[in-house]
């Protein structure tokens, strides 16, 4: 790839600067006019520059995006959604390379350049979803970097053979294996978690466990995960996704659990759904518990909603948690960018020399203004390539 210089941009809404890119890396950032631009030169006209957005919890394999409209059906419970999806996904051709590619293209158009993809692995679909997502990512030349979680949507212990599939997925390249509601789906939390941690240890992969269970049942499962994380030495390799119960507990219980999560090095991913209880985000931040934002599914058999714009999810997070000050609004954007590096296995994801050249330009006064307006992305650079301009893809 030729070298590229983005001139007159404002990293994180600060002073005007030029960002120099060579290959897929940012090589330098200088005050505008301080150094001679190299390679292709693009004038940012004073736009705010942010790192590419990171989707820390996504299901890009199971969307019907790009297909005819599918009306919502089935029962609005976790078990009901699972059953409905299993009944109709084959008729809709899920998973498909075309739909997965279309979803990744929407991510990219909105500035998402990295995602943690939870890919269904079960007795019906096998590992096909992983193959589909790999092909979709390749079709875009890796512009959206994907970290794959092998996800047992239909449960683990209640379907004999799923643990074996998850183990095979870890061998096939999944960087994490997933779990789901060990108590209410499998009704055997000890067996599910012990099976998952066994794979994680033997294959040296991460764990990412969906927890929808509420109240004390959810909190009990947090405790089981914390204990096993410590026992097996998996600190900084385990994530809880959703974890609605944390927001529902009394403040003292929240504080104690957050301290335990921090000590065990467990991270947290949320999609900030509007009717959920707010998380104790200040305690999570101050305890240095990594917190990531995700879109969840987009136009799938669970929900017709979603457009792939993680900046809008950050706005939902800000509204749900009552964020108002400039510092707090900027924090919400940081959750969708540089603070999410670990969710896609990066040490650094930011506008700094040495980082992958994932850059988004927005017409905004500052970062809080960009969050509350979610303006069209003026330019998206992914791995050093200009992939979108003025909201339209170029690849």
**What do the pLDDT scores average to?**
96
Biggest beta sheet attributes: 9 strands, mixed
Portion of residues in beta strands equals: 15-25%
Looking at CATH, which topology of the domain at 53-59 and 108-344 would you report?
A: TIM Barrel
Order of helices and strands: EEEEEEHHEHEHEHEHEHHEHEHHEHEEE
Helices and strands in order:
Blueprint: E1 4-11, E2 17-22, E3 25-31, E4 40-43, E5 48-51, E6 53-58, H1 78-88, H2 97-109, E7 112-120, H3 128-139, E8 145-151, H4 162-172, E9 176-180, H5 189-203, E10 206-211, H6 215-231, E11 238-242, H7 245-248, H8 251-264, E12 266-270, H9 281-286, E13 291-293, H10 310-320, H11 326-335, E14 359-362, H12 367-373, E15 377-382, E16 385-389, E17 392-393
Keywords: Hydrolase
Domain Amidohydrolase: 43-388
InterPro entries: Amidohydro_3, Metal-dep_hydrolase_composite, Metal_Hydrolase, Metallo-hydrolase_Enzymes
Q: Can you walk me through this structure?
A:
The protein contains 12 helices and 17 strands. The chain has helices at 78-88, 97-109, 128-139, 162-172, 189-203, 215-231, 245-248, 251-264, 281-286, 310-320, 326-335, 367-373, and strands at 4-11, 17-22, 25-31, 40-43, 48-51, 53-58, 112-120, 145-151, 176-180, 206-211, 238-242, 266-270, 291-293, 359-362, 377-382, 385-389, 392-393. The mean pLDDT is 96. A hairpin with a 2-residue loop joins strand 15 (377-382) and strand 16 (385-389). The protein has a domain at 53-59 and 108-344: Metal-dependent hydrolases (TIM Barrel, Alpha-Beta Barrel). With 395 residues, it is of the alpha/beta class. It is globular, with a radius of gyration of 21 Å. Strands 1, 2, 3, 4, 5, 14, 15, 16 and 17 form a 9-stranded mixed sheet that branches. An 8-stranded parallel sheet has the order 6-7-8-9-10-11-12-13. Keywords: Hydrolase. It holds the Pfam family Amidohydro_3.
């Amino acid at each position: 790839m030729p070298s590229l210089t983005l001139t007159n941009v404002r990293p994180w809404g600060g002073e005007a600067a030029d960002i120099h890119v060579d290959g897929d890396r940012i090589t330098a950032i200088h005050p505008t006019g301080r150094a001679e631009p190299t390679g292709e030169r693009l004038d940012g006209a004073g736009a705010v520059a942010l790192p590419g957005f990171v989707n820390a919890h996504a299901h890009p394999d199971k969307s019907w995006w790009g297909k005819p409209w599918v009306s919502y059906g089935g029962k609005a419970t976790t078990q009901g959604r699972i059953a409905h999806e299993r009944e109709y996904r084959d008729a809709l051709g899920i998973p498909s390379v075309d739909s997965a590619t279309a979803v990744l293209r929407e991510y990219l158009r909105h500035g998402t350049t990295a995602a943690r993809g939870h890919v269904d692995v079960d007795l019906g679909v096998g590992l096909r979803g992983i193959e589909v997502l790999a092909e979709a990512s390749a079709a875009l030349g890796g512009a959206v970097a994907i970290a794959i979680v092998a996800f047992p949507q239909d449960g683990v212990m209640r379907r004999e053979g799923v643990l074996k599939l998850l183990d095979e997925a870890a061998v096939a390249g999944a960087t994490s294996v997933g779990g789901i509601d060990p108590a209410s789906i499998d009704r055997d939390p000890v067996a599910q978690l012990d099976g998952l941690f066994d794979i994680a240890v033997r294959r040296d992969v991460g764990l990412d466990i969906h927890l929808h269970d509420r109240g004390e049942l959810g909190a009990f499962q947090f405790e089981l995960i914390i204990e096993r994380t410590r026992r097996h030495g998996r600190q900084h390799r385990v994530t809880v996704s959703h974890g609605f119960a944390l927001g529902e507990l009394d403040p003292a219980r929240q504080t104690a659990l957050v301290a335990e999560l921090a000590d065990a090095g467990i991270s947290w991913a949320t999609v900030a759904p509007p009717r959920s209880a707010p998380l104790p985000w200040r305690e999570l931040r101050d305890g240095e518990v990594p917190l990531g934002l995700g879109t969840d599914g987009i136009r799938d058999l669970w929900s017709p909603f979603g457009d792939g714009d993680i900046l809008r999810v950050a706005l939902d997070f800000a509204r749900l948690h009552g964020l108002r000050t400039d510092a707090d609004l900027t924090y919400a954007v940081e959750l969708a960018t540089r603070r999410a590096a670990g969710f896609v296995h990066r040490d650094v994801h930011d506008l700094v020399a040495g980082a992958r050249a994932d850059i988004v330009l927005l017409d905004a006064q500052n970062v809080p203004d960009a969050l509350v307006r979610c303006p069209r992305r003026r330019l998206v650079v992914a791995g050093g390539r200009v992939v979108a301009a003025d909201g339209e893809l170029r690849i």
